[in-house]
Amino acid sequence: MEIKNTNNQEIDVWRKKDVIRQLFAPTLTNDEFMFFMGLGKSMQANPFKREIWAIKYDKNAPASIFLARDFYRKVAQSQPDYKVHRSFAVYENDQFKIKNGVPDHEFTLKNRGKLIGAYAELIKKDIDQSFVLYVDFQEYNTGRSNWKKMPATMISKVAEAQVLRMAYQNLFSGTHSEDEQDTIENAFKPASNEYKQEPPVLEAQAEIVPDNEPLKSTLFDQPKNESEENYHEKIEQFLLAEFSNEEEMGDFLEKLTGFPDKKTGEIVPGKRDFSKLSNRHAQVTWHKIKKEFGLE
């Protein structure tokens, strides 16, 4: 994805191939990673903004590439022939049918009964027939996480993502939406975990601390190759991808690397220049970034 800074210089977040691979696609084969990069670059999807990511659940199965639901929306809505799309959950007491490819849905807000599925419809300009797709709740429900907390929202998101893929197959072919990730993970549960991405050993809850204060003991339990990583470079790449000018970078970093004074309780401003961070402070800062931006 191309980002322009205040000097009108173009910044390509995909230019650091090794960094992208380590953060977002560490278990992919070479061919899978090249496809992942090619797809991301061609669609201008920014992995640092969690618009695209890839996971290989099993060594004998192709890697799964995921796109954020909001990214599907953004790309579809930018197409010249896009007009409108919508999605709704369907309950057993609703009056719902699809006749001649057109959904007819009536419901009240009381006694809708059991959730049974969702549908989505997308209409393009100058095309009489809309794109309509219905998904069954039982086929996608994992009974955990957000599927347990807000099932209607989740199944509606699945329907929405699928109709966007169906309407723009040339753009989204070979991808999955974020809302399908739980379902795909469940399908690979019996498979070996050898090729499944696991959370890093480093404790993501570690707090930012001043350079003269010892880090939590869990930070010293890392493998050697983890401690040898260039955290300053990782932070730099993230900042370049996420912010358009040095002022924004400095404000973000200053807030992130600040810490509370033990005596007064007031927040001591952090550093505005990542190169001024000590190695261990850069390490904690990077893992704080990963946690807050979902880069784990």
What's the layout of helices and strands?
Layout: E1 2-4, E2 10-12, H1 17-24, H2 30-43, E3 52-55, E4 64-67, H3 69-77, E5 82-91, E6 95-99, E7 102-106, E8 115-124, E9 131-136, H4 137-140, H5 145-149, H6 151-167, H7 169-172, E10 176-177, H8 181-187, H9 224-227, H10 231-242, H11 246-256, E11 259-260, E12 267-268, H12 279-292
Helix pairs in contact: 3-6, 10-12
How is the main sheet built? 3 strands, mixed
Structural classification: alpha+beta
Terminal Cα separation, in Å? 21 Å
Percent range for β-strand residues: 15-25%
List low-pLDDT spans: 1-11, 190-228
The arrangement of helices and strands along the chain is EEHHEEHEEEEEHHHHEHHHHEEH
> What integer value in Å does the Rg equal?
23 Å
Gross morphology: globular
State the strand order across the main sheet: 3-4-10
Would you report the number of β strands?
12
Number of domains: 3
Mean pLDDT: 76
Specify the number of helices: 12
Question: Explain this structure to me?
Answer:
With 296 residues, the chain is α+β, with helices and mostly antiparallel strands. The protein folds into three domains: 1-65 and 174-198, no CATH class; 80-167, no CATH class; 217-292, no CATH class. Helices cover 37% and strands 19% of the residues. The chain has twelve helices and twelve strands. It has helices at 17-24, 30-43, 69-77, 137-140, 145-149, 151-167, 169-172, 181-187, 224-227, 231-242, 246-256, 279-292, and strands at 2-4, 10-12, 52-55, 64-67, 82-91, 95-99, 102-106, 115-124, 131-136, 176-177, 259-260, 267-268. It has a three-stranded mixed sheet. A three-stranded antiparallel sheet has the order 5-8-9. It has a two-stranded antiparallel ribbon with strand order 1-2. It is globular. 27% of the residues are buried. Residues 1-11 and 190-228 have low confidence and may be disordered.
